[in-house]
Amino acid sequence: MDTDFSNLSLPERLLGNLGSLGYEQMTAIQAAVLPVILAGHDVIAQGKTGGGKTAAFGLCLLAALTAERSGVEALVLCPTRELAEQTTGELRRLSRTMPNVRVLPLCGGSQFGPQRSSLGHGVDVVVGTPGRVLEHLEKGSLDLSCLRVLVLDEADRMLDMGFQPSIAAILKSAPAERQTLLFSATYTDGVRALSRGYQRAPRDVTVETPEVARDIDERFFEIDEGGGIPAVLALLAQHLPESTLVFCNLKVDCQKLVDALLASGISAAALHGDMQQHDRDHVLLLFANKSCSVLVATDVAARGLDIKELSLVINFELSGDPDVHHHRVGRTGRADHRGKAFSLFTARRAERLRAIELHTNRPVRIEGLPPRVQGRVRLIAPMATVLIAAGRRDKLRPSDVLGALTAEGGVDGSVVGKIDVRTADTYVAIGRAHVQAALVQLGKGRIKGRLFKARLAPLGAARG
Fold first, then answer.
1. Which range of residues forms the domain containing residue 428?
2. Which residues have CB under 8 Å from 19's CB, separation 6+?
3. How does pLDDT run across 123-148, given as a tens digit for each residue?
4. Among 217, 313, 343, 367, which residue has the least CB neighbours within 10 Å?
């Protein structure tokens, strides 16, 4: 199979940008679908997440943009805000050498008014979640009459999350003469029905992405009923990981575990579906920049989370689906880092253990728990986060913030971690021992000639 991008019928601007972004050869999914999509066919493509599908459909929808661009010409629907924002970022990178390409995310959890205003000024590509996209359609702020390419990304997840009615309403609002690209990790009956209803003679493309060999120390621990919290505390005390992701099957267990961890001196936060989107984003940012040691999450809430140096995954309870267990464990041991994955189970759930053995075709490793913890564990994150009340709308850039922090009398640049500039605020990771000095520096100094309020970001909800 030819994997050279230069052999594709892509505009020169797109091809020239690929090398600078590190795209050397096509991945399996890109080599399989790019020629088919560029030839104008509808596609239903099956492949595992992480195989390069965003670039595959992204290059094609960007290549399909017309010179006039009189309206929204491409729409990408995603199951979660996190995936929509990642996709938006990738499309902006791919199109950076194309003049005046406007890519807009439309997701719940963000204010409706600014989105409506941006649409009014003209947008070429919309990336959004079904609920918010449909809301804009119903209120007349989004017009799909010029749509040329529609992408359903992670279609199986969108159906699992109950978005089928919204998807159907959106597709009925789109022109019949369009190209529809459907990407899914699985071929469920619902996905096939979606394809039959809204695609025209689609080409089926299935790509088996080989498993990446990962260095993961996976162990299982049998516990008594109700013994999950003491077991998690004992494992954390023994291994003292820098960052841990704990999966719970129930939202109520997330909060109970976080409360117990905080009481034991461990920096922890919960992530579940009952949280407002702004608070979910806040917690994810703190965990990603190492200002929170333990994130306790449900599977749905953790979608879109990608931490390359995740030390440990703990399954507070085994999932009933061995494929879900596989994806949980696969979040550690990435980027050439050794990972650990510990799973707790009770005798009542032993059948789930057997299902995992059948799924992986190898016996599981069962061990005894370390001794119970006496006293506090004191597992504190290495970083803390300063929250600045200014962001992109104030024309702030990461370099502006770094300059203000390291100006004369300020902190050393080596203690400044990730700087995330959002729409209305900015998150700055600072070495924990230097956070007070950073707050003093921001309190007396100016950023771009202006004084902005800065405070220590709370570990839990952003409004806490």
1. 383-456
2. none
3. 999 999 999 999 999 999 999 999 99
4. 367
